[in-house]
Amino acid sequence: MEENKKTPGAQKPKGRERRHKCQQCDKYFTKSEGLKVHLRIHTGEKPYSCEECGTTFTTSSNLKKHQRIHTGEKPYSCEECGKAFTQSGHLKIHQVIHTGEKPYSCEECGKTFTTSSALKPHQRIHTGEEPYWCEWCGQTFARSSALKIHQHIHTGEKPYSCEECGKTFTTSYHHKKHHRIHTGENPYNCEECGKTFTSSHGLKKHLRIHTGEKPYWCEECGETFTASFRLQKHLRIHTGENPYNCEECGKTFTSSHGLKKHLRIHTGENP
């Protein structure tokens, strides 16, 4: 008699533990309500809608979390520093700052992370995987958040607005950075010379003055640069590109700075 063969990993649920099965992916659930919510992954149904902005969600709990963006409610507070968060998961991630714990390690380069969700997109640097793609232009991204920000180019959406001057931004990061112009806050400090900056990116670029690091190099001649925009400007020497044009006389320049200096000839302005 032929033996019954069982598919590896496809274990039958015990007793009444998991009676409700998804016909789409064979996942089991203990309650019919759990299956009902799960099925929305396959159907795409999002029955819960935010009255403020119209964003839809698969569960009422996810809607409730989202609504805190509009209400400003942050019920989860850190006992160490008092910083508050909209979600308990965000508080848990934050608390690692105080403990210094980074339990998730990249097998390729050894870099460590506070969460598995942070490790996963990092690993795509090594694999080259970019699973998120833009339906408008086909560009691909390693992170869903990067795709979302990119799509604002096509939609023109700038959902973050400055209450001081009304200027709008595509990301909360740029909004926060801009807001420091009004507050005068420069939280990033150079330990070498004491100069302060509004962003970590600004500090990182500045530190190259002290370290001598020039990570951007020209493939044509090998010259190196501290910033990508300096490399881009330099490349025009090789390509002959002069994208900045004087409307007065038609003369062209490789940089906006060169054009600005030239315009003084026409305006009579002293430098």
From TrEMBL:
Q: Any idea what this protein is called?
A: Zinc finger protein 239-like isoform X3
Q: Could you state a single Gene Ontology molecular function term? A: DNA-binding transcription factor activity, RNA polymerase II-specific
Which organism is this protein's natural source? Gymnodraco acuticeps (Antarctic dragonfish)
- Every copy of the C2H2-type domain together lies at 20-47, 48-75, 76-103, 104-131, 132-159, 160-187, 188-215, 216-243, 244-271
Q: Does the keyword Zinc-finger apply?
A: yes
One Pfam family linked to the record: zf-H2C2_2
- Alphabetical list of PANTHER family matching this protein: C2H2-TYPE DOMAIN-CONTAINING PROTEIN, ZINC FINGER PROTEIN ZIC AND GLI
SMART domains per the UniProt record, alphabetical:
ZnF_C2H2
Keyword Metal-binding attached: yes
Q: Which GO BP terms, alphabetically?
A: positive regulation of transcription by RNA polymerase II
Please tell me one Gene Ontology term that the record gives under cellular component.
nucleus
Keyword tags:
Metal-binding, Repeat, Zinc, Zinc-finger
- Annotated region described as Disordered, given as residue ranges: 1-21
